[in-house]
Automatic annotation (TrEMBL):
Source organism of the structure: Rheinheimera salexigens
Keywords annotated in UniProt: Signal
UniProt superkingdom: Bacteria
Protein name per its UniProtKB record: Secreted protein
Residues making up the signal peptide according to the UniProt record: 1-20
């Protein structure tokens, strides 16, 4: 009896390992518009660009100083793009291929590298989008986080990112609010400091 149990245990372990191996080796499927958008951004990997606020309605503080985006780290599945505001290195946009689209997260850190109380909010694509533009409506995690922190108006947030040959645009829209920053891709600038919470 013990011998049979041992054999069964080994067989189950072998089966689980085989399944895990199959899952790890399976290709991450995607559609052309998501792949092309991802690749259009990834071609700028290692470069940094200066931007300016072009829409801020209603006006809000917090984006004074030089604005720099840095396509800092790129893999086949993820792009990490810090967004620096003057000496504030707290923000990093993370775009990840999920197999069912693209996911955007805002990684917010404190200067000591720990997570801000409002962090990792964002959303997932819900349609094909375009080679040059994708939209990310707020996901459930973000909505619950906004509500907990007293910002329920942000539950209807939609983040949009545009990538054209000469311009990259980050845009936030919701009812009664639009914020937009345009970055000049024709003039790379010096790479900024390492974002808070990250290492070289």
């Amino acid at each position: 009896m013990k011998k049979h149990a041992l054999i069964l245990s080994i067989a189950l372990a072998f089966s689980a390992t085989a399944v895990a191996s199959t899952i790890q080796e399976a290709p991450l499927v995607s559609i052309p518009s998501h792949d092309n958008y991802f690749d259009n951004l990834r071609q700028h990997c290692g470069k940094a660009f200066e931007g300016k606020v072009t829409v801020n309605n209603p006006a809000s503080d917090g984006f004074e100083g030089k604005l720099i985006m840095h396509v800092r780290k790129c893999t086949d599945q993820q792009l990490q793009i810090p967004f620096h505001v003057g000496d504030d290195h707290s923000r990093t946009w993370i775009i990840t291929k999920t197999g069912s689209g693209l996911n955007l997260k805002h990684d917010h850190r404190l200067e000591d590298g720990s997570y801000d109380q409002s962090t990792m909010y964002g959303g997932h694509t819900v349609d094909a989008g375009f080679d040059t533009m994708q939209s990310f409506p707020a996901d459930q995690y973000s909505k619950e986080s906004f509500a907990r922190l007293g910002n329920p108006q942000s539950n209807s947030n939609i983040w949009q990112m545009y990538i054209y040959p000469e311009t990259f645009t980050y845009r936030l829209i919701r009812e009664g609010r639009e914020f937009r920053v345009d970055f000049d891709l024709t003039k790379p600038v010096a790479v900024p400091a390492t974002p808070w919470g990250y290492k070289d």
